Amino acid sequence: xxxxxxxQFNCTxxxxxxxxxxxxxxxxxxxxxxxxxxDVQDDYRVIAQYRDMVRxxxxxxxxxxxxxxxxxxTVIGTIAWLEQHQAQTWEWVDHQIYSPTxxxxxxxxxxxxxxxxxxxxxxxxxxxVSEATIENSEHRPSVRxxxxxxxxxxxxxxxxxxxxxxxxxxxxxxxxSRYVSLLGKTQMLAIRENSSLEREYELSDLPxxxxxxxxxxxxxxxxxxxxxVHPLQILDRSPFQLFAxxxxxxxxxxxxxxxxxxxxxxxxxxxxxxxxxxxxxxxPFTVTQAxxxxxxxxxxxxxxxxxxxDAELTDQNGETVAAYNDGVAYYQGRExxxxxxxxxxxxxTKLALPPGEYxxxxxxxxxxxxxxxxxxxxxxxxxxxxGLMNPLWMILSAILFAILGxxxxxxxxxxxxxxxxxxxxxx
Amino acid sequence: MVARIVLVVFVLGILxxxxxxxxxxxxxxxxxxxxxxxxxxGGGYRVGGGVK
Lengths: 427, 52
Hints:
The complex is a heterodimer of chains A (427) and B (52). With 427 residues, chain A is an alpha+beta fold. In chain A, 15% of the residues lie in helices and 46% in strands. Chain A has four helices and 25 strands. Chain B is mainly alpha-helical and 52 residues long. Helix content of chain B is 42%, strand content 8%. Chains A and B meet through α3, β21, β23 and α4 of A and α1 and β2 of B.
């Protein structure tokens, strides 16, 4: 009698009725009642018995059926694993599943997430990532498989704590499995070596969690609670979100270009000669561009001192239309072998003037040396530019759109950081 | 599609308004300037409007 010939049999150790679920390649059946490991290929001979195993917390029971990627699978076996490193422990549960059309695979319950794993017949390049490689490498080691690069995520040694049901190999409680897991674009690769140093390659996917749980008949009260972000949880943007992100980033670029355009706008329309500050300057000029700013610049050769000026602006009728006072302050020196300077010998004043003819009168009102080796301003010069714009609004819009578009990039960065948070790699 | 059109209009509206305000020099006048023209109380420049 073998698994292919019967749908149920009695445990040859304790007599309990056990279901046959797993197809013709099943090697071992672990009794759910007495822990006896029965050799399916040898009339269910008892080859081992494990008592007092603690049943792991898992949403799956043997015999549950569900659809994954269009194929029906049945849960046929359960192995709980424990990994210990220093004071930390990790636990997860593997369920062997079987499909009459697609063969054997695994559902793993880890941190509340369900992953689907199949063995790969292909060999990675390089074929292994040794402990020495992990210890000595300056960057995360990587391997290639099927044209895809997989980057080191974690490694360790685990041992079983619970074995139940049917398996297409012979698991024992003495197994010590060394694994290296590597993360690819959409799949996770595990290079696994058992106690006999047999090496296997496994590829894991993150299936639709509802399909993997509710589709297998898991009742709501047994649903696991996912913790954090799974390494295979790709941040999937909707087409509208991608459109909005690209639109915002494009708008930010346009706003930056507009910022430079508005920044450099303007043409000089008048400039005086350099004149003694005692004489003052009267400079006529003409504004021709409407709805633009006019900039009046006063320069003075103050050094380690300040100079204050009174300015009066009159129109073509000689009427005063505006007045202001402002000053320059400029300081320089050497300290600790390095030159330094502070302030400016220029002061700029912007006005919104309608087109017309104007005259600006600038006179020194006060000046003082207030730093060592200074001299008061002796010469001054006035110049006028028209057609200026205010780039402030383009700067603000560039910031706004950069924040809106950047938020998409920042959330992706943090999401990916959380995907890699479980990695044991440290630079 | 409607949502995309609304979003494009929203973005172009902000960009257009920002460019128009920058071109017109809105809030670009120096704060030190005071109008002295008769009948202009308390500072003679309004947003984008030039001398009173």
